[in-house]
């Protein structure tokens, strides 16, 4: 088959029983202009060019339509979506937590100022450098402490006594740990372990903006024995929105066909089992953020090989 040079218009007029719904091509073009073009690792390449390269990984038209149908299932979070989550987390979760922690009167006329002061007195830090803490603070009009290190680095290189000295000097008795996306919960686990070992006397809130079901379960199980730690995520992705097979899936017929595609593509991705396409820890996420693509997301979207051009190439840590 000749490589696609543009999205076929006739794909918008899907026949009954096809994976693509009517209007899918127009919908994807709209999302490309309004949302997908924001993807930072490829911000200087036109999204539709990337899309055509991705579809042309496969020669069969039915398989190409299958990829497009899978793309429609994707949850993409752009800048505006993240800013909305920042505001939602501040106005809801963080505000309620500091009201409870500081025993504030929610009906006090000055409650907004009291909440803001209470949170500024906390140590607001990201769990990894993926969460853009400066943006979070600016959007919500917060300041917090002068130093706001990510706790993944703090666990690795930090001196616990120096950290405690800094906290004592700045009269810090409460910590808020934020993260943009949690897949399996592996990276959050390290931060929680550090809190348990060194800061069991402080009030701690763990608040990922978005979390997958596996990460949600792991964090809740981990903090059961930690009375000083509270956990409240901004958004938990429903189990049905993860890539699954069978009745639990939100789109079982599509996912069965995609699973068959995984099996056929094992050689090109140099994997031995189709489960390898489900991402890190077999999470099966169908999530992409404007800043990067999580490694918990389906490999078809982000993994680059000699034989595969990804739609959202991931920037990996070394």
Structural class: alpha/beta
| Top CATH class of the largest domain | Alpha Beta
N-end to C-end Cα span: 38 Å
Beta-strand content: 5-15%
Which term fits the overall shape? elongated
Question: From the 3D coordinates, which CATH architecture of the largest domain would you assign?
Answer: 3-Layer(aba) Sandwich
> Which stretches are low in confidence, meaning pLDDT under 50 for 5 or more residues running?
none
Count of DSSP E strands? Answer: 7
Largest sheet: 5 strands, parallel
Instruction: Give the averaged pLDDT, no decimals.
Output: 94
- Rg over CA atoms, rounded to whole Å, is 22 Å
How many domain modules? 2
Number of helices: 12
Order of helices and strands: HHHEHHEHHHEHEHEEHEH
Q: What name does CATH use for the topology of the largest domain?
A: Rossmann fold
Percent of residues in helices: 40-55%
Pfam family, one: PRTase-CE
Domain PRTase-CE: 53-314
Protein name: PRTase-CE domain-containing protein
Structure description:
42% of the residues lie in helices and 10% in strands. Helix 10 (213-222) links the parallel strand 4 (203-211) and strand 5. It has helices spanning 24-34, 47-55, 61-72, 79-101, 111-120, 133-140, 151-157, 160-169, 186-198, 213-222, 252-269, 299-302, and strands spanning 75-77, 123-126, 174-182, 203-211, 229-231, 235-236, 287-289. The model has no long low-confidence stretch (mean pLDDT 94). The chain folds into 2 domains: 9-72 and 249-302, no CATH class; 79-236, Rossmann fold, CATH 3.40.50. With 318 residues, it is of the alpha/beta class. Strands 2, 3, 4, 5 and 6 form a 5-stranded parallel sheet that branches. The protein has a two-stranded parallel sheet with strand order 1-7.
């Amino acid at each position: 088959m000749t490589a696609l040079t543009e999205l076929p218009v006739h794909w918008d007029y899907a026949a009954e029983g096809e994976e693509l719904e009517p209007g899918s091509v127009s919908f994807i073009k709209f999302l490309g202009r309004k949302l997908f073009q924001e993807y930072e690792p490829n911000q200087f390449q036109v999204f539709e060019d990337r899309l055509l390269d991705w579809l042309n990984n496969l020669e069969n038209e039915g398989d190409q339509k299958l990829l497009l149908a899978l793309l429609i299932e994707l949850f993409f979070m752009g800048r505006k979506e993240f800013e909305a989550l920042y505001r939602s987390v501040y106005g809801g979760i963080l505000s309620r937590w500091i009201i409870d922690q500081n025993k504030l009167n929610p009906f006090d006329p000055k409650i907004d100022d009291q909440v803001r002061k209470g949170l500024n007195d906390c140590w607001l830090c990201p769990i990894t450098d993926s969460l853009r803490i400066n943006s979070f603070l600016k959007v919500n009009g917060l300041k917090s402490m002068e130093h706001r290190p990510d706790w993944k680095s703090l666990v690795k290189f930090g001196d616990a006594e120096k950290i405690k000295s800094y906290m004592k000097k700045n009269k810090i008795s409460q910590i808020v740990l934020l993260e943009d996306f949690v897949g399996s919960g592996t990276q959050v686990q390290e931060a929680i372990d550090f809190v348990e070992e060194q800061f069991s006397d402080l009030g701690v809130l763990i608040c990922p903006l978005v979390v997958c079901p596996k990460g949600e379960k792991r964090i809740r199980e981990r903090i059961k024995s930690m009375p000083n730690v509270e956990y409240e995520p901004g958004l938990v992705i429903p189990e049905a929105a993860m890539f699954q097979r069978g009745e639990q899936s939100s789109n079982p017929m599509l996912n069965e066909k995609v699973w068959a595609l995984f099996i056929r593509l094992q050689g090109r991705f140099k994997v031995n089992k189709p489960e390898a396409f489900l991402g890190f820890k077999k999470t099966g996420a169908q999530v992409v953020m404007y800043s990067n693509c999580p490694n918990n997301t389906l490999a078809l979207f982000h993994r680059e090989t000699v034989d595969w051009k990804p739609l959202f190439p991931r920037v990996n840590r070394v």
